[in-house]
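Each lists chain and fold; for instance:
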Amino acid sequence: MSEEKTPGKKPRVKHKRTARDPGQNVKTAKGRKSSSTQWLKRQLNDPYVREAELKGYRSRAAFKLLEMDEKLDFLRKGQVIVDLGAAPGGWSQIAAQRGAKVVAIDLLEMDELPDVDFAQMDFTDDDAVEKLLAMLGGRKADCVLSDMAPNTIGHKQTDHIRIMALAEMAFDFAKDVLTPGGTFITKVRQGGAEGAFLKALKVHFKTVKHIKPPASRKDSAEMYVVGLGFKAVE
């Protein structure tokens, strides 16, 4: 049946969006929380998100690793790298593109990447370390990277304790697998790592520093602790 047209009135033409406009607004969908709408708006207007899409990176987090490497120069071709909290794969992707062999783990699913051996499991599980060691196959790691972070609850002290617990677990693992001279990077929250944690790192690394890469959002409390020049200590 043909559609009846109103005399003197032009038919409505639907325009398809072909590119995202900087600064575009997001209409609040029915039932969507305002916090979700704000997150979506921030994602749509984030230049790092747009650049990640253009370059084919798994996430904007790829730029954090690139910026830290630009500053500290620790990624090398032929390295063995362990990526803790890897999904969706931004850091593993960059490491593999630099010519590294990557062993990665995350509670969430992650699509396959060339030169990345991935296990979907919780790093805090009792058998997670054993699984990673089996994936390494007796090799030592040149870098242990941890972008792990627990879900925040909005209570500053509790959130800090929970992320520090993950950082300490990552450090304990790194001490067992890093080759001499290796690198360790782990996420913490603003305010930095606790004194005891930093003291322990300084025993095992020639250089220890905090860094907040430009790709970390200004309103984010995240930052990273970097240990360079691993030293095995009895």
Summary: Residues 156-177 form the longest helix (22 residues). The first strand starts at residue 80 and ends at 84. The chain has two domains: 25-56, 59-230. The chain is about 35% helix and 20% strand.
